[in-house]
Automatic annotation (TrEMBL):
Organism for this UniProt entry: Calidithermus terrae
Protein name: Uncharacterized protein
Amino acid sequence: MSTLFPPLPEPPRRALLEADLPEGEPWGWRLAALLLEAEDLARKLLTQGLSPGLAQVIEDELLALRQRLHVLRTSDRLASFGLRPPLPAEVAALEVLEEGDAQSLLHLYRQHGYGAFARHSAYLFGGRLEAVPNPDPVSFAALVGFERQVAALRTNVERFLEGQPALSTLLYGARGCGKSTAVKALRTAYAARGLRLVEVLYPGLGQLPALLEVLRPLPHKFVLYLDDLAFSAEDPGFHQLKALLEGAVYQRPANVLVVATSNRRNLINESWADRPDPGSTDPAAWDTLQNKLALADRFGLVLTFPPFDQQGFLRTVSYLLERDLDDATRQAALRFAQEGRGFSGRTARQFADWHR
């Protein structure tokens, strides 16, 4: 029994039925998947490197897998179980399985990662990392009228992908104006260059140090996406985000970039009671207020998405419907917005979906 790679479920044919395999001879793909599923081994190699003893054990177990593959291919010849093309990580894993050694297995993990990181480009983190099998394929072309903001965002992220210094980014503006679309479009545009999008949900803020340690040794570049931020003054999430942005005991990995969206410029839900009396001579009271309001200043790049006007709304509707608007459609779109929804990218999307 292998001590490094997961066992092939029994009976073997059931393992084929339960797996999502690419097109082609199925046994090779299924056993190659075991290499990508060996998460403990992959993490050890990525964080500690390849020792001589571990190399010997890996090569012994690769040989055993090759022998098992030969038996399955000769005793149970089957046509393709899959219809999709293989992922680059699957092709590389099959090459290691068929003729690679311990060094080539290490190279596999350094190029493609392991587990869900080798197969997916979007994730949710709410304390546990979960892959998103069907991420939103939205593109930057949907952001009509925000060319300047999109250009600045893309320039910053391209620097990040190239290993140059990049700035934590805050996208600020009214509801429905395209901030979230801009962040999700990063994955669409740059997944092929190794960008991965991790949406951090509120429950996950307290587990950020653990998440960063998982991401640190991986070969990909991760955008940590925090959507619709707004903290109360005493919210523990405020302190978690502040530590992530300005530094804590843990070091933020070089392959992680923070991008957040918010309807509030300073990210804090304020009330008048939070403000010191204008005549107060207590320095601590004013220092506390400034500390709360300075969270947004920790973002090196702040991009403002102003509200839509009528013309911007109609241009977006035209783009989404993929045609020029006739007078009837223009009037229907304006009525749709003026019935309480307002002029926004979200309203334009809702109208286009309804009008098709």
